[in-house]
Amino acid sequence: MDENYVFTAQQIVYLTDNFHRLYCEVIQVVESRQLCWVRPLCLVDMAEENEIYAQLLTPKLLVDVRSTSDLLYPINLFQPALDTEVIPLLSQLSSPDYPVNNNPIAREKLHQFITKIWQEYSELF
User: Fold this and answer.
1) What pTM value is reported for the model?
2) What is the pLDDT of residues 89-119, one digit of tens each?
């Protein structure tokens, strides 16, 4: 994670853990506490790290987590997302063929991901 990034409201960022990425929209940066308030958008499961771009176009698993709770996390855990990786994901979520994931499964997947992040970076919290 790089501490040199300056994020702005509405920017898309992500948290990563192994082959999973949580894409979020920045709501506000709390500079005095070095925290970033974000709204989760989607959780992506990629098959292998070295195939990241191919997998982002057709991810192994794409979970819509827009109906879940906002997060407040240390800013240095986030990385800026590239438009070329986010636009295809958001397009899939907006597709009429994509099933609406406003259900407990989305919350459960997000909870599992967040728990891993907490365990891995507990010294930052």
Assistant:
1) 0.83
2) 888 888 777 666 556 788 899 999 999 999 9
